[in-house]
Amino acid sequence: MRKFVMATVLFLLTTTAWAQPATLAIRHATVIDVSDAGRGTADIPDAVVLIAGDRIVAVGPASEVTIPGNVHILDAQGGYIIPGLIDCFAALNHQAHANAYLAMGVTTILGVESTRRGPLDLDADPAPDIRRLGEVGYEAASLDELLADVEAQHAVGADVLLAMYRIDPDQMPAIVQRSHELGMPLIGELARTPYVDAAAMGVDAFVHTTRYSLGLAPDELRAGIDAEPFSDDLGSAKWTYYQMLPDLAADSEAVRRYGSALAAGGAALIPTLSLGYLDRPGHANPWDGPAAALIDPRDIHWPADQATGEHAYPPQKADAYRTIARAEMALDRGYFAAGCRYLAGSGTDVWGTMPGISLHHELEALVEVGHSPRQALAAATSNPAAVFGWDAIGSIAPGKRADLVVLGADPRTDIKHLGEVRQVVRAGIVHERKDLLVLPVLADGQLLRREPMPIPEELLVAAGAPRPEMAYLADVTMDEITYVSDGLRVEGHLIVPRAPGPHPCVVYNRGGNREFGANSPLRVAYRLARFASWGYVVVASQYRGNAGGEGQEEFGGADVADVLNLIPLLESLNDEADAARIGVVGFSRGGMMTYLALAQTDRFKAAVIGAGVADSRTVIADRPDMETYVYAELIPDYHQVKEEALAARSALAWPERLCATSPILLLHGTADWRVDPGQSMSMGRALYDLRRPFRLVMYEGADHGLSEHRIEAYGQIRRWLDRYVRDGEELPDLEPHGD
């Protein structure tokens, strides 16, 4: 926080005052001084940096610092050492992001979670240090409510607080005071409270040029932005203001006065100019750098085209964003000249920004608006450490955490030399860049992404009133997920009761193929969320190759692994899911997938199969279109391996392989034209002959989806799951008995 004393760079020439012996020495490189907001020049050529554990214990010229014996030596001959970079506004969703940050020299991020950016992956390893950004004031509230929110954010581990649009000026001083008392600096992204006033009240920094320039605009626009701060409508108040930015930037005297007022207040600026990188002329293709190979464009909000490096915006939108990008640069040029202090934040990963890569773009932009390369470096090192009170990082000095970057070129002469990363030292551990550019093999079932699923308004409200039949949706959370199966990124859904867990689980297997029968938000809400409202964690796969997932579904081939790999995913949800109690439910093709899964695992305590395909061999006789448009297109080498492939997808050919300890509930409608009802009856007979636990329910006159008996079917499903999965009831005696 700005109330803290700025750390100074100290150089200790011996290690006698440090209790722990040195374990690492970096030698023969120039240590670059980033102190005093980048005005320091006390660089040390041919330096030695001694590290003990995760701390620096000595820094100085090689002629004056003795390297102890028995230490690991990193010879950085001809290189340059800078503090690890700090990204002051960024997302990190999974291990690939973590590697990309480190490969670009970023050792600390101020982590942002949002609908567009996704959740923070706090378990990635190796990874930058993640400082968490909480928020307060997005919704209007009383001062007592806002202060309670401040306390709540601190309780859940927020390191910095984002003060948002709907905090009134008379509320801000108390929020600043309490946040600082709790050790949380404040960043402002404001509307109701003027920025100059907020700076005087003690807010530590402001984020986004487009936001903190609002003080140049007419006062009435603040109310419109307060109402719709994230509108994409080019006619909204936000865009009306954005379109004014070139004219506002052109008034250099007004910009100078406003910048001087901001600087006098002492708050630092986090412009996130990298958000406009793709909209400025002459930019490089961000996918061309080596770290970009780690990043999946589907993880990026509005990514650049990989071939062209350009946004695929419609012309009107493209012109609007280019206008903003030019105006932002002009505004920050004026603010910097007026004396404002800057922090570097990339805004990753919206508007095409990318982990690690975009922080470099941010520093390049800071140079363009007037910073020297050294001052730009300070914006990503010593400045945030000083502003936020992060005393352990931001400079190279004894007692500091050993977060360092070894470069092969001099960033003092060209900020783009930051891209010449050789090694990154994170908390005393040396990472070779070439190793960071190769991701570890992902574990099956590893959860890579978990984001709230948008809920269609029509599910919640009809004719302006809440729909009582959908009230159960309030009892669950519904998330879209990406997980690993056979090394592929597969899409799916995770629905969890809001009540404290851990809860018993259900794996749900969808029907159809490709996009037909996919788990849409409507299906998730109507069916999967209903199951979850009974007290179950429900997880469902779209199967590989669908909904943007990698690979190619095989209609009961290798994609069965996508079902089985949901088991280790559930095992990873310790506080939410009881993976010792898992049931499985599948309808239609999902029934076939359930049979196939039951032949490979005994982990399912019970199964429910509705209108399930038990014999793919007879399907093609009943429905020739299935062979032409599904089997032949999805089953590899279908015409060469037809008989074996169909038999492998026909549980009636091998019912003895089905898990004997997983009782099966078979449901089928007698008026089903998609899957012959006789398939379930034949499976019932096969299970009976094998003395396997099952129940067969045939619904008279019901169609493929059991629509005429849906409520009754839900009751059957719930009772079956509760009996064998939730309550763990013992299997019945299947031998003939009784009077």
Can you tell me about this structure?
The chain is of the alpha/beta class. The protein has two domains: 85-380, TIM Barrel (Alpha-Beta Barrel); 447-726, Rossmann fold, CATH 3.40.50.1820. Helix content is 31%, strand content 21%. It has 24 helices and 25 strands. The strands form four sheets. The chain has a nine-stranded mixed sheet, sandwiched between helices. Strand 22 (577-587), helix 19 and strand 23 form a beta-alpha-beta unit. Helix 7 packs across helix 8 and helix 20 packs across helix 21 (624-634). The protein is globular and about 95 Å long. The model is unreliable at 2-19 (pLDDT under 50).
Write the layout of secondary structure elements.
Elements: E1 24-31, H1 35-38, E2 44-52, E3 55-61, E4 72-83, E5 85-90, H2 95-103, E6 106-111, E7 129-136, H3 143-155, E8 160-163, H4 172-181, E9 186-188, H5 195-201, E10 205-207, H6 209-212, H7 220-227, H8 237-250, H9 252-265, E11 268-270, H10 315-337, H11 357-368, H12 373-379, H13 382-388, E12 404-407, E13 421-426, E14 429-432, H14 433-436, E15 447-452, H15 457-460, E16 461-462, E17 465-466, E18 476-485, E19 488-497, E20 503-509, H16 521-533, E21 537-541, H17 560-564, H18 566-571, E22 577-587, H19 589-598, E23 604-610, H20 616-622, H21 624-634, H22 642-648, E24 664-669, H23 678-689, E25 694-699, H24 710-726
Parallel strand pairs: 1-4, 5-6, 6-7, 7-8, 8-9, 9-10, 10-11, 20-21, 20-22, 22-23, 23-24, 24-25
Antiparallel strand pairs: 1-2, 2-3, 4-12, 12-13, 13-14, 15-18, 16-17, 18-19, 19-21
Helix pairs in contact: 3-4, 5-9, 7-8, 8-10, 9-10, 11-12, 20-21
